[in-house]
Every structure is written in structure tokens, then in C-alpha cells.
Design brief:
By secondary structure, the chain is mainly α. The protein has one domain. Helix content is 95%, strand content 0%. It contains one helix and no strands. The radius of gyration is 16 Å and the shape is rod-shaped. The protein starts with a helix and ends with a helix. The model has no long low-confidence stretch (mean pLDDT 85).
């Protein structure tokens, strides 16, 4: 039970980290290509 909760916490933390990195990369991409896209 405790291991399952720990695994879930790690997975959620990893997903949050990947989401933050993806959104940051998207923001950088918008900044770089913003003049062309918008």
C-alpha cells in the first residue's frame, strides 16, 4: 500500500515536471516563432 502511494507520487511528480518542461518549451517556441505565427 505504501509502495503504491510512493509510486503514484513519483509518477505524478514526473508528469508535472514533464508538463512544466513542455509548456516552457512551447512558450520558448512561441517566443522564437511568434513574429511568424502571430
Amino acid at each position: 500500500m505504501r509502495t503504491a502511494r510512493r509510486v503514484a507520487t513519483v509518477l505524478i511528480g514526473t508528469a508535472a515536471l514533464l508538463g512544466a518542461l513542455a509548456s516552457q518549451a512551447a512558450a520558448i517556441g512561441i517566443d522564437l516563432g511568434g513574429g511568424l505565427t502571430f
